[in-house]
Input
Amino acid sequence: MTDCVFCKIVSNEIPSTVVYEDDVVKAFLDLTQVTKGHTLVVPKKHVPDIFAYDAELAAQVFARLPKIARAIRDSDPKITGMNILINNGEVAYQSVFHSHIHLIPRYDASDDFSIHFGDHSAQYDSAKLQAVADSITEKVGD
Output
């Protein structure tokens, strides 16, 4: 895709700080560095989001995540955890519409990163949960 910033990074038209690269993915430091070592893993094939992956691409991309995550973790003894995030769609904070996976090292509870999950459990009894599950389950085979 000619106007995609990540496609340009993959093709080396735009410089990046690469931490890993092979024939399927390129992993490079995110310019924002939410925490030190914040890395993006980008499939070399342009796909806009997770919904566009086929099984083969998903297997290839996700098979590389543990290796890259361990390398990040092992690069600094102060890293005690890691958030692995994929934002899909503008409402989910996706800002570049070439699928990418954020590997965000965590140092301690006071580093500058948080995720807030709202608790809406009071709105769902077992019947409502089952209805949601059923609507998802019937689409899994598609």
Notes: The two ends are 28 Å apart (CA to CA).
